[in-house]
Each structure stands twice: as structure tokens, then as C-alpha cells.
Amino acid sequence: MTYETHETTPPAPAASAEADGAPVENALYVYALLPEDAELPPATAGLDGRPLHLVTAPGSGLAALVHRTAPAPYQGPDEQVREWVREQDAALVAVWEYVGTALPMTFNVLVAPDQEASAEQRIKEWLSGRSEVLRDMLGALAGRAEVRVEISLDREAVTEDDAEAKALVEEMEGRSPGLRRMLAKRLDRLRKEAGDNLADALHSGIRRRLAAVTDDISVRAGRGREAGEVSVFAGALLVPREEIDTVGALLADIQEEQPAARIRFLGPWPPYSFTELPAAPGEEPAAAEV
Predict the structure, then answer these.
(1) Where are the beta strands (DSSP E) in 70-175?
(2) How many separate helices (H) and strands (E) can be counted in the chain?
(3) Largest Cα span, the chain
(4) How confident is the model at residue 224 (pLDDT cuts 50, 70, 90)?
(5) Residue 233 contacts by C-beta under 8 Å, 6 or more apart in sequence?
(6) What backbone torsions phi and psi does residue 143 show, to the nearest 5 degrees?
(7) CATH number of the domain located at residue range(s) 145-160+190-269 in this protein
(8) d(Cα 108, Cα 98) in Å, to the nearest integer?
(9) What is the structure's pLDDT at 277?
(10) Which residues belong to CATH 3.30.70.240 in the chain?
(11) Cα(7)–Cα(180) distance, rounded to whole angstroms?
């Protein structure tokens, strides 16, 4: 399976601190929220190989997966940032698979101390103050995974048996360059119209069939189609882990019914697209980014 990264809402803002010219590691980098009794897989490391540990809020039923760090964001060249994102995702996926549920955080979620509390105390207070809703979210997502489905149509394949398209292709043979260009434009218009019409006709039916085998759907933009393709459906699906093969079988049926379909089926991942965390004090709630 292919793993990717997604984003969710942070619980608290970061601040900067230094002592004697060197960064003071009095902040916590947060990866996810887990059940309070969660155990971590052996030797799980986070960004730059840093060891991970849990901050628990006794009685809340919750814990935060963190590493200790300076209260400054991870910044650098694009390739370095991509590597950190990959490391965060790998750590989160390993913990999610081991524990069975998690509420993921975005990249660069830092909780720093303030004048009244340490980073650990701020996290514990946040978990305790929102324990009921967060426990409900963890329970609802337990045993479930996110998979991503993108279905498009190859416009040329859509018109493969179209008599008018075949006639245009034959007419282009042996013609002058100028006439071939004119005929090619007519052919492109024909293929675009046919592909768009079929995509519109298929969309609602495919979405209904996917909804029947999933707990929830989050519609999203596709990753960018190849030239000559038109999108039919792009979205994240929340699926019981034991039902992932059922989704795959349904997609195989759709492919058999529509030979012009181009299907991408990615995952499983933690439920990035189905996590909406309550805001930290002084912040407005925001839905997860995907």
C-alpha cells in the first residue's frame, strides 16, 4: 500500500525560547492523540530519529504522542521539510497500526510553555478540558482506516468505438499538416464532450455505491489527472479495516464495467480526513486539511 501525509488542526500555538544562545528544549512536538492506556511499538522514532513518548492526562482517557524539542518550527530547504514530513507520517502510521486508533496532527504542531505552565501541563489541561469529545472521536474511529479513491475517464478510450471519432482518425491519414490540425481539433472536441458527458452520468451512481460500503466520504480534489482524462470521483473514504478489500472489489467491478476508467486506490492511512479537533484556548475550531 502507498502511504501519504495529511494535515489536521493543532491544539496549541508555539513560542520561541533560547538560553545562553542555544535552543532550550522545553517545548513538545505533537504527532497525535491516543487512548490513555496506549503502548508504543518498540523503538519508534520521530523527526530526526528523536524518541517518542506519551504525555497523559490522568482520568481523561487520553494521551498525546510527542517528542521534546526547542520551541521553534522545523524549517529548511524543501527537500529537508519533505523528509521531515515523511518521517512524521511513518512514525504516526507505525503507532496507529500498533494502537488501532489515533487522532493525527499536522506537521509542525508545537506546544511551548507559557508564564504559568510547562508544555506538559498545557497539553494535560487541553486534554482534560476536552476529554469527552476527544474520547468519543477516538472511539468512533477505532478500527477504521482512511483510503483514497480517484476515478477518471480516458477521453480517447471513451470514444474508442465511436463511429464519428473513427471516421475523423481515418480522414486524418494522408492529409496535409494544416488539415490534420483542423481535424485533430474536431476530434479533441468530440472526445472532450463524450468524456465529460459520461463522467457526469457516472458520478452520482459511483458515489452511491462507494457510500454503501463505507462509513463516511470526504470529497476532495484529485491529485492532477493525466492529459486527456476527466474526473469522475475523487475522495477519501472512512472504512472498517476489515472492509478495505470490499472497497477494492467494488472498484474492480467498476473497472470491468467501464474499460475507459482509470482508478487509483491508495492507503490505508490513519483517518486524517475525518478528524476535526476542538480548538485550543483562544483559537477558533478548524476542519482537517487534506
Answers:
(1) 103-104, 110-111, 144-154
(2) 7, 11
(3) 82
(4) low
(5) 149, 150, 151, 203, 206, 207, 210
(6) 75, 10
(7) 3.30.70.240
(8) 23
(9) 75
(10) 145-160+190-269
(11) 48
